[in-house]
Amino acid sequence: MPLMVVTVFLGGWEFTVHHMDIPRSLLPAPSYVYERMRTTFSPLMTNAWPTTLETMVSFLIATVGGVVLALALTSSTLMNASFYPIVVFFQLIPKIALAPLFVVWMGIGSTTRIEFAAFMAFFPVVISTMAGLRATPGDALRLCQGLTATPWQVFFLVRLPYAVPYIFSGMKIAITLAMIGVIVAEFISAERGLGYLIVFASSQADTALILAAILILCAIGLVLYGLVALGEWLAMRRYC
Amino acid sequence: MTAKAKHLDLWQVSKTYQSAQGPVEAVSDVTLSIEEGDFVSILGPSGCGKSTLMMMLAGLESITDGVVVERGRQVTGPREDVGLIFQDATLLPWLSVLDNVLFPVKILKKPRNEYLRRAHDLLAMVGLSKFENHRPSQLSGGMRQRVSICRALILDPPLLMMDEPFSALDAITRDEMNLALLDIWQKNPKTGVFITHSIREAVLLSDRVLVMGGRPSKVVCDIKIPFGRPRPDDIAESPEFNKLCGELKQYIQSGHKRTEDVST
To answer: Which CATH number characterizes residue B259's domain?
Structure first.
């Protein structure tokens, strides 16, 4: 059913562009976008690779860092009282606006883009992991306490497994935010990457190339999200 | 009768919580002894502090005032030789039935192989041999609670504490579980502290029943149950059984007004 809708939509688009003689720089027909993608496939791929890699690295940093910080914040009331409001504050503000600051402070290298994207993706992981770590049933904790379990045992054998579904819902948000972070950083600072390619193509009024790059981004985004969802499925089979 | 050794000794044990409305005394001045091998039920309406009392005996709640001594040593916190059973089975959903039973072995870093046989035997005793590799979510409530009993018994603790273990089950399953527990006790005698609000359950299972009530909550009645063991399955239909239940019901209803009459 959605496939039919898409087909009709693309057909209508193609027809309208030809029928009304819309210039290519304004709105190229789908067939031309495909053509452009075929002819520039190699540069598209060269630029897709750094974007994908930086997204994955920043996602991993955000996930590991987020889980560790969530553990630290739930382990003591003092830590929680001091830092949790700050985490919520950062979760709520539009972090994209801080992108230029990252460039000013850290230059225009790949590291800057990874750090900014990790910063974008980090907070949802912290918040959902904290919710997960707090969701452990009280009786399970009392059982461990009664067995004189160490805090590390309680964390790894009970609290972390109970938090798995929460952590993955945070990770699913994080992977999309990491990608947005990388693209935005590429818009303003990059010398390569699909975000850079989009900015470059728009300066040339090459709308077909912009659309081709967006198409590749969508594909990458879907695959990365799919990988996280696959990981979630495997973890849920193991832990739920 | 030979005098039995004392397993637990409570001396003027009290628990006071701090609440927004000021201190609330949940348990007040409980002094009693529990003897080795006795199955003692603590009976009372909800909110009477019976669970709090058990948690203090288990070392999971701090004791505001008074002293609890277990086999000559003062109780200051949890210790591994107490088996705990909660109202909810509290199984870890990602572990198999067998691994749930062996969970205490893992926590206490004991050799798994040495306890594997015992785990098989315990699960066989409660009729769950075929379910060893199932997940808890595939079992009924009664089966889950039986798994949690096996888990509490795996290290063969000399003391078992049960906090309303069957109150979340339906009446039929509950009767089954009571008989199963009687059977386990027959094969595996140890000291038991059993929290319940069911009079019949308390009389059926126990050697002794303590009734808690009043505000602040005290032990208002302490009755020995005269039935020997093994107990026949139809003991709950006997006139003596029903007479005892009726007496206990009176004590519960009259609350702490009767406190003076039953001072040891």
So the answer is: 3.40.50.300
Chain A and chain B share a number of CB contacts under 8 A equal to 48
**Per-residue pLDDT reduced to its tens digit, A57-91:** 999 999 999 999 999 898 888 888 888 899 889 88
Q: What is the ipTM of this complex?
A: 0.82
Q: Does A237 touch chain B (CB under 8 A)?
A: no
Q: In what order do the strands lie in the sheet with B73-74?
A: B22-35, B6-19, B65-70, B73-74
Continuous H helices in A147-239:
151-153, 160-189, 194-203, 207-239
Same domain, B136 and B206: no
Cβ-based contacts of B82 with chain A (< 8 Å): 146
Q: In this predicted model, what pLDDT tens digit does every residue of A155-181 receive, in sequence order?
A: 999 999 999 999 999 999 999 999 999
Contact A140 B106 (CB under 8 A): no
User: Which domain does B253 fall in, by range?
Assistant: 1-81+187-264
Same domain, B68 and B195: yes
* B85 interaction partners in chain A (CB closer than 8 Å): none
Instruction: Name the nearest CA neighbour of B86 among A217, A138, A62, A33.
Output: A138
